Amino acid sequence: MSVAETVSGQVSFIPVDGSTVAMQLTGIWSHDASIKPVEQVLMDLSDFKNLKLVLLRAHDLAGWDSRLPAYLLKIFNYCQTQHIEVDASGLPEGAQELLKLARAVPERAGARRTAQQKSILAEIGKAVLNGLKDAKGLLAFIGETLLAFIALIQAEARFRTIDIFLCIQDAGPAALPIVTLISLLVGLILAFVGAVQLAMFGAQIYIADLVGLGTVREMGALMTAVIMSGRTGAAYAAQLGTMNVNSEIDALKTMGISPMQFLVLPRMLALILMMPLLCLYADLMGMLGGAMVTVSAFDVSLIQYYNEIQKAVDLTDFGIGLFKSLVFAALIATAGCMRGMQCGRSASAVGDAATSAVVNSIVYIVVADSVITLICDRLGI
Amino acid sequence: MTSAMNTPHITVTNLTMAYGDFLIQRDLSFTIDHGDIFIIMGGSGCGKSTLLRHLIGLQRPAQGDVFYDQQDFWHASDEERVRIIRRIGVLYQSGALFSSLTLAENIALPLGEFTHMNGREIADIVSYKLALVGLAGFEDYYPSEISGGMQKRAGLARAMALDPEILFFDEPSAGLDPVSARLLDDLIVSLRDTLGTTIVVVTHELASIFAIGTNSVFLDPDTKTMLATGSPKKLLAESSDAKIIQFLTRGESNANKSA
To answer: What distance in Å separates the CA atoms of residue B214 and residue B259, rounded to the nearest whole number?
Structure first.
């Protein structure tokens, strides 16, 4: 900071005659120099009446960098609006040249943006319109996806079969470790939470029922869906978004290949095929986690736990869990692919796409889960 | 600005560049003087941009040294290297503007970090730099809202923000129309003339090479080393190497000979 205080540039005005004033620049005009704010200098200039010509004099300048032309550019612009001539011949040659360059391309009319105060009503209206546009986009995307699936059924869809396998690899086996860890722990937690209550009645054996039904009907599908929306849904949005930024999606369109068939279809198919399998696996892991707690801490043998679960959980429960995971898969793939395809053309837009893909799919998942659970309750299954 | 013209600014000695086992170029030795407009040229894939990455500290040489004003760049301490890097500005091929910041914020970033100016003074410098590259009034635009050529010019405004001693350009005229490319060349020359900036340009635009280049190095992808260094015009007039002549004449002299 001490350097900043010692370096300074000065500006002074010397009236030459009634309509001419000389502007004397001395000292060092560098980035770290302290210099009188240009707004004050413009005020001083406006005090001169009938000003027709400003002479810039900088013969005694000790040093300068971009600060000098940046400063003078404002003076030039001001004088231009006031119809005052500026004589720059007293400036260092380099500064004259730079100022000439800076003024070579005039500001494009209408380019500058002015901040506007918007009323709350306008903001609300805009939000509503945006919401409608979003809903329309979702409907359009679902429609296009259905068309792509119809093309698939008619065996007219264009995509590379290998892509499906790559997507399956990515959405299935590659997700096993994280699904294992999370489901095991969720089973463990369920068992502990239930055990504390059930042990009060000496009914530890029913931990098996709780864990079994909890994971198979609910937690298995839900946890896999949450994992996959963060893992795969976000990845879909980011991949497709980046392809959009690189004009790769445009390239596909101009080749006459539908990006919906070529990019979205394999991803959707992969996720829809893999999610039920992952869900089954998560169910197994959840029950295993529950067994670890029940057997080790609550005086229930593994055989008892196994028998009790077999009694409590029937095929319908598995069916409900699998159905949910199928719905969730479609929702995650839709949110991820849609946000990716709608992505803007900048790096930050890709980030936004990934974020909103995850947020959307989690909202969709929880809403869908509630609806399905409610329906099952009404139907009594 | 203080150093005299025609004294070495960047010296490269026996530089070998490689990605792991894959050799890009070897035994590069050349000198870039203060005030030079130095062209790094050669066919596609010969390692021009890789050489640039070695000069600006993004990639460590497999062998050899780079000196800035006699100071060994790659053997300097981290702080010294940062100090050297702060004296250079780089215009990347596609501008490399931060897409989440407006043009003004992009240019203001280094000014705010490394100078003591207040917001208003920085805004003045930003307006001036944008005017210099012909983008007056575009302060509040995001990079995605302007064309590729404008992005490139805005990238140049950011590279020049701190009045660097050395400016590096990676393919400056790629993606520009001929008139804009010419204006950029003019700007490069006046930056050298007015501020004494040393300029290093990676390019294969012949028009630019002859219009602005005062010194150059020619990299060859086949032999994986440099074939010549010196003023491009002089190379064209005096070189006996068929590859260089072919490159500098767009292969037309060869066609004439065989015809």
So the answer is: 33
Q: How confident is the model at residue A266 (pLDDT cuts 50, 70, 90)?
A: very high
Distance in Å, alpha carbon of B195 to nearest chain A alpha carbon: 7
> Phi and psi for B143 in degrees, rounded to 5?
-55, -35
Is residue B2 less than 8 Å (CB to CB) from chain A? no
Nearest chain A residue to B187 by CA: give it: A101
Give the B window 53-112 contacts with A, CB below 8 Å. Answer: 99-100, 111
Q: CB–CB of A32 and B115 under 8 A? A: yes
CA dist list (Å): A134 to A129, A130, A138, A342, A356: 9, 6, 6, 10, 12
- Whether A103 has a pLDDT exceeding 70, the answer reads yes
Are the beta carbons of A74 and B127 separated by less than 8 Å?
A: yes
User: Looking up tokens 């590379």, which residue turns up?
Assistant: A160
Place of tokens 């600060």: A67
The CB density around residue A173, as the number of other CB atoms within 10 Å, is: 12
Strand intervals (E) in A30-157: 34-35, 53-57, 61-64, 85-90
Compute the C-alpha angle A37/A42/A47, nearest 5°: 130
Global pTM value: 0.74
Q: Could you identify the residue written with the tokens 């790659």?
A: B74
Torsion from C-alpha of A141, A146, A149, A150, nearest 10 degrees? -140
Please name the residues in contact with B81: beta carbons below 8 A apart, sequence gap of 6 or more: B57, B73, B74
Residues of chain A positioned with their CB less than 8 A from the CB of B141: 113
Between B128, B137, B162, which is nearest A108 by CB? B137
Predicted confidence (pLDDT) at residue A5 exceeds the cutoff of 70: no
Length of chain A counted residue by residue: 381
Q: How far is it, in rounded angstroms, from Cα B62 to Cα B108? A: 35
The residues with which B218 forms a beta bridge, in sequence order, are: B41, B228
Helix then strand then coil, % of chain B, to nearest 5? 40, 25, 35
Provide ipTM, 2 decimals. Answer: 0.76
Calpha distance B141→B205 (Å, rounded): 30
Helix (H, G, I), strand (E, B) or coil at A355: helix
**What does chain B come to in residues?**
259
| Cα distance between residue B155 and residue A107, in whole Å | 18
Is B129 within 8 Å of A66 when comparing Cβ atoms?
yes
Degrees, nearest 5: CA angle A43-A49-A53? 85
Asked whether the beta carbons of A374 and A381 are under 8 A apart, the reply is no
Both structure tokens of A261: 């068939």
| A276 to chain B, closest Cα gap in Å | 39
Q: Pick B193's closest partner by Cβ from A37, A67, A97.
A: A97
Q: What is the largest CA-CA distance in chain A?
A: 109
A180 CB neighbour count, 10 Å cutoff: 16
Chains A and B form CB pairs within 8 A to the count of 93
Phi, psi dihedrals of residue A14, rounded to the nearest 5°: -125, 110
pLDDT of res. A322: 94
pLDDT of chain B, 259 residues: tens digit per residue: 445 667 889 999 999 998 888 888 988 999 999 989 999 998 888 888 889 989 988 888 988 999 998 888 888 888 888 888 888 999 988 888 888 889 999 999 888 888 888 888 899 999 999 998 888 889 899 888 888 888 888 999 999 988 899 999 998 887 778 887 888 888 888 888 888 899 999 988 888 899 899 999 999 888 888 888 989 888 888 888 888 888 888 877 654 444 3
